[in-house]
Amino acid sequence: MGSTSAHNDRGGFGRRDLIKRSAALGLITVPTTGFLSACASGDGGDDEKVDKGKKTKENPLAVNGSAPLEIVIFDGGFGTEYAEDAKAVYEKNFPEAKVKFSSTQKIQSVLQPRFNQGTPPDLIDNSGAEQMDMGVLVGKKQLADLTPLLDAPSVDDPAKKVRDTLRPGIVEMGQFDGDPVWIMYYAYTVYGVWYSQKALASLDATYPETWDDMLAVCAKAKKKGIAGWTYAGKHPYYIPFSLYPMIAKVGGREVLDAIDNLEPNAWKHPAVKACFEAYYELYKKGYILRGTPGLDHIQSQTAWTEGKALFIPNGSWVENEAAKTMPKDFDLAVNAPSGIDSSDKLPFGAIWASGGEPFIVPAKARNTEGGMEQLRIMLSEASSKNFTSSVKSLTAFNGGTDGIELTPGLTSGVAALEKAGDNVVNPRIQDWYVALQKEKIGVGGLGEMMAGRLTPAEAIKKIQGYADDAAKDDSIQHYKHQ
Hints:
10-stranded mixed β-sheet; alpha/beta
């Protein structure tokens, strides 16, 4: 996912991979559950831990200053420079440590054999299309508990624990069924409907708050030869970045919770039906850019920055990822999804925002203290500001924007968060059930519907079937909202 890490990823999708979490660069080709079952049984290899160092005020995690450290970063929408800069701080603090740093877009392919052998790196940015399934990693006890990091004093203010410097929801996102905390989401991603303020103004239009208004704006655009929408047709799990918060706006956040919990008939809720039918109308009325189902995320973003389409569902990594093709006067903006009408449960402004770029320290890493210390450095104000100014995204650190000239997209993202107030939703299905979210719901359901190959009713039936299968599958670790 630019991150994931949907991405998030995305991602961070999440991806980014968020989503997350999260940049999604293709479909997962190896079934994640199969891969991690193999990991779980592979307990050979050298799993000797390095000796701990001496705990001091400057070294609260008792890092062994002469022990090697290995970091693997997902090379997506955020690039790797921010992580290399943080690595340089670690090397300055521990000059005897030999730090190995590498990056890849194929996290799972590269790291699967390492997990199998019991010799994983010390810190991993687990994002992108090949993000390892978080739910499976946690279920198979493959990850180290990050509580020592969260309870350590922060770099900037030793009187404050790291956990007290983080944005709301970040700690909870790293949890599965309550304590402990397994994942540190480093980026803070705003998901929603992205557009050019200049393009919207040229149509003498304002951002539509209801679906009738959305259709009216799209009709106006069509008359000028501009499509209303495009999206990553090859990776249609981007569609939820605006569709999921719309479902919460229409039916209340409990509808998303039921979907996350894999509850029977969760997808048959009237709010889901209303939102699927609304999106399908974009297809029926010809408001989607021709050829969109065949475009990947970069191609759809490029068509959008070239002015061929008005709106695109995406995460805040898009400002960095699409920078090369985005005109200087594009005036990038993001907004919460349009609702249906005044009967919606949540006010306009309800939006999806959550951690992206999920960092993990493997349980079998040789230098877990070093991996956590690298994260502690990254969660300092200096590292956070460096990330924000260089990749145009907020971080998990609650601050880090003072004195930085915010870009149009960042400015708009911060304003969207302020407008949302407490109405920020965070669907967990993309973290808990990666394969279900990406391959089944995204590609098999939403992608087929938006390409006109399924009606909304058929898509809902198909997706509910996928969710029911996942709920019954004993090989999948299941999670529920507490």
